[in-house]
Amino acid sequence: MKKIGTFFVVIAAVILIAFLAWDAVFNKSASKSFFDMDTVISVEVIGKNAEEVLSESENCINELDKLLSRHDADSEISSLNRNSGGTLSYKLVGYFQTLLDVSRRSGGAFDFTLGAVSDLWSFGYKPKVPDEAELKKTLAQSGYENISLSGNALTVSGGIIDFGAVGKGIALDEIRSILEKASVREAVISVGGSVLLIGNDSKVGIRNPLGDAGRSIATLTLSDVCVSTSGSYERKFEENGKAYHHIINPETGYPVENGLVSVTIVSESGILSDALSTACFVLGLEKGIALAEEYGCEAVFIDENKNITVTDGIQIEVTDSNYNLVSYEQ
Ligand code: AMP
Ligand code: MG
Q1: How confident is the model over 158-202, as pLDDT tens digits?
Q2: DSSP assignment of 141-174, as one string?
Q3: What local confidence, expressed as pLDDT, does residue 9 receive?
Q4: Helices (H), the chain
């Protein structure tokens, strides 16, 4: 009898050790924060190859920046801007197709050719209100209609291509494929205002757009999606008592003024969540909700009166009592 008892204890110990060993290998967690793409990036993963995934993700972001940055003279985007187009690499073809689609379906509210217009505002450096005549002239030379794509041949007949509205979302898509290959089960990747959540029922906070940036005002519960927020708090400056921010109304060349202060979009695709957060911010509440729904995305719109309007499929908890959840009447 005693022998049988010992036997079971040994079996239980073996199972426990095997479980702990399995857990140690497959549930390794690792995290890292670094600065790239002009923003803070943080990567947290749980899975078998957690450490390798971190360094692969960092390399991937590094390479993307070299591909997409219009401020890097050696990037592919800089070459396209310099040469009025060219033959696109495989990855860029897909990105351009998506950006042209969002530009058209947003009626031009999304316009990724405003690089020269943004430069006149010097956002991020020494921002200033540009000379009006120069602004109008530069705006007239811009416009997504100047971009044509045929197969992998891109022609640019005006404007400066700027991936500023989508680089962070693209980074999430690229990191997602690294995570999938490594069979990572849980992860939170944050690239500026865009976050990729892998795993069930993750929580993500929406930043306070009108006050303490360190506090979130609402929490979304989500699984396996990308979430991007565009806000008027980014690259904000004041001149003669008036506030300006970096999201441009392509009709005027001036920052958008429609009462919105932040727009959050939830999508399976990072490039779409990022493009649509910018597009919907420019479009305003009604047209913005319609566009998000057209793309099958969920959205959270916040206005300057602290009203929060959400699409039907969002699971949101408002954690700041100064903000009101209002129902959207179509
Ligand atoms: P986001 O923070 O994702 O909304 O991106 C804002 C960035 O997108 C700006 O800093 C510009 O580089 C660029 N941008 C500004 N206005 C527009 C617009 N109307 N359409 C597309 N990109 C824009
Ligand atoms: Mg964006």
Answers
A1: 999 999 999 999 999 999 999 999 989 899 999 998 999 999 889
A2: H--GGGEEEETTEEEE-SSB---TTTHHHHHHHH
A3: 63
A4: 2-26, 50-68, 76-82, 90-105, 115-121, 132-141, 167-181, 270-283, 285-294
Q: What is the pLDDT of residues 8-42, one digit of tens each?
A: 666 665 555 555 555 555 567 899 999 988 899 99
Q: Counting Cβ atoms within 10 Å, is residue 179 exposed (0-12), middle (13-18) or buried (19+)?
A: buried
Which tokens belong to 280? Answer: 């919907």
Burial group, residue 305, by CB count within 10 angstroms (0-12, 13-18, 19+): exposed
| CA 168 to ligand 2 center in whole angstroms | 8
Q: Among 190, 246, 267, 302, say which to mutate for ligand 1: greatest number of ligand atoms within 8 Å of CB.
A: 246
Q: Which residues of 201-218 are buried (b: 16+ CB within 10 A; e: fewer)?
A: ebebebbbbbeeeeebbb
CA atoms within 13 A on the CB side of 268: 3
pLDDT digits (tens, 9 = 90+) for 58-69: 999 999 999 999
Report how far residue 94's alpha carbon sits from residue 104's, in angstroms, rounded to the nearest whole number.
16
| pTM (two decimals) | 0.91
Find where tokens 């906070």 sit: 205
Answer whether 294's CB lies under 8 Å from 269's CB: no
CA nearest neighbour of 111 among 263, 289, 281: 281
The arithmetic mean of pLDDT across residues 269-290, rounded, is: 98
Q: Which residues line ligand 1 (CB under 6 A)?
A: 110-112, 114, 118, 123, 162, 164-165, 193, 230, 234, 246-248, 250, 274, 277-278, 282
Q: How many CA atoms lie within 13 A of 318 on its CB side?
A: 15
